[in-house]
Amino acid sequence: MSAYARTFAGDRRARARGGIAAAVVCVAVGYALLLGLAVRHGVPTDDPLAVFEIAPEPPPPKQRSIPPPRRSRRPEGAAAPPNLRAKPTEIVAPKVELILPPPLPVVVTAPVAGPGAEASAGASDRPGPGTGAGGIGTGFGGGGDGDGDGGGWRDETPPELIRGRLRDSDYPRGLGDEGISGTVGVRYLVWSDGRVRTCRVTRSSGSDVLDRLTCRLIQERFRFRPSRDGLGRAVPAEIVESHSWIVEEESEEQ
């Protein structure tokens, strides 16, 4: 065998060994890849981790802006003072005109019944024994210059207030705080004993409380010297007047 033949045979054996070695390496690499990629199932635990979704936090509520209160453009009125004052008007009692019936005529009777016939008992223009007042007879009738017991007439006098008035403290506190005032016109009857019997409102103040209070205080407090007629007798009389309830406003100091 020549030298060339020996060299070629050696090369084939070397290539065969290299191919086998390469095949072994490929098999080892493939097995290693299979082991590395294999999924290993672990032993399940008694308390696995629960998985749940956490919702995002809701956005905070929108804050509403509250506008500041508006100030009224109207000026505020001054407060009523604590010392409320009731100012009644002057009591001027009108002159009461009393219409009295005329006095009854005085009838003079004869002390004894006149005897005789009808013609001799009546009044006649001829002198005779009758009891009538004749022109010249002796009858019982009073002449023109008689001395009767009747008295003369005097002037009537109106009622006169002797006690009672409306005071500052009579003003209702609640009405004073609200600034309620007014004038009350009244008409009341003064009896012969000087007390006020009836009272009615002829002109309202606009407040029913003030109207009723005025009449009630007049009946409770007022006492009069009663009115008297021409003969000096105490008689009832009516009085018409008005009373003003006023709330005084205090001026602001500058």
Automatic annotation (TrEMBL):
Q: Decide whether keyword Transmembrane is in the record.
A: yes
Q: Which residues cross the membrane?
A: 20-39
* InterPro entries assigned: TonB/TolA_C, TonB_C
Query: Which residue ranges does the record annotate as region Disordered?
Result: 50-87, 116-169
Composition-biased stretches, type Basic and acidic residues, lie in 152-169
Q: Give GO terms for biological process.
A: transmembrane transport
Enumerate composition-biased segments (Pro residues).
56-69
Compartment(s) = Membrane
Q: Which Pfam families match?
A: TonB_C
What's in the GO CC field? membrane
What does the UniProt keyword field contain?
Membrane, Transmembrane, Transmembrane helix
Spell out the Gly residues composition-biased ranges: 129-151
Bilayer topology term: Single-pass membrane protein
Q: Give the chief site where it resides.
A: membrane
Q: Which Gene3D superfamilies match?
A: 3.30.1150.10
Residue intervals of the TonB C-terminal domain: 156-254
Task: Kindly give the NCBIfam families that the UniProt entry links to this protein.
Answer: tonB_Cterm (TIGR01352)
Q: What is this protein called?
A: Protein TonB
The organism encoding this protein is Sphingomonas guangdongensis
